[in-house]
Amino acid sequence: MPLINITLPENALSVEKQKQLAELTTHALLKMEGMENNPKAKMLTWVYLHKHPQQDYFIGGKSSTKPHYRFDVTVFANTLQDSHKEALTSELTHLVLKLEGTDDNLLNSARVWVMFHEVADGNWGGAGEIYRLKDLMRMIQS
User: Fold this and answer.
1) How far, CA to CA in Å, does 64 sit from each of 68, 105, 111?
2) 3 state DSSP class of 128
3) Which end of the chain, C or N, has fewer beta carbons within 10 A?
4) Which InterPro entries match (predicted)?
5) What structural domains and CATH numbers belong to the chain?
């Protein structure tokens, strides 16, 4: 039951491309978890888009003219290996640049950050109860 928060300027991508971003981000993360074809896992993956005016973003205290993106990916602790995190960071970066229609180079890639947050087992609550990874996996795989 991953949670993905994406922070981006409100006009950086069209509404259609924002929808594509949410869908493709969901697929990319579930692929890293080996669950991309599991409809139950897909239903438990939430994506929130946090949009802000471009002028509300600063680098070094100065207004930025180019859009910057931040992905906050929250998963259960120890469910993603370092290699998965590296691959997902790369995939999300290339995905944003493709949707944005800009060159895929180091300068543009540097405008995309991916932060991973791991929740210890027993610290994820929903539907009025605490979810444990083993119980969640049993539910998804049944």
Assistant:
1) 8, 18, 10
2) coil
3) C
4) Tautomerase/MIF_sf
5) 3-141 (3.30.429.10)
What crossing angle do the helices spanning 15-32 and 82-100 adopt, rounded to 10°?
160
Strands 58-59 and 46-52: unpaired
- Write down the residue that tokens 């995309």 correspond to: 112
CB-based burial label for 92 (10 Å; 0-12, 13-18, 19+): buried
Distances in whole angstroms, Cα of residue 136 to Cα of each of 80, 128, 140, 141: 16, 14, 6, 9
Q: What is the DSSP string of 50-115?
A: EEE-GGG-EETTEE-SS--EEEEEEEETTSS-HHHHHHHHHHHHHHHHHHHT---SHHHHTTEEEE
Tokens 């992905």 locate to: 71
Contact in structure between 1 and 126 (CB atoms under 8 Å): yes
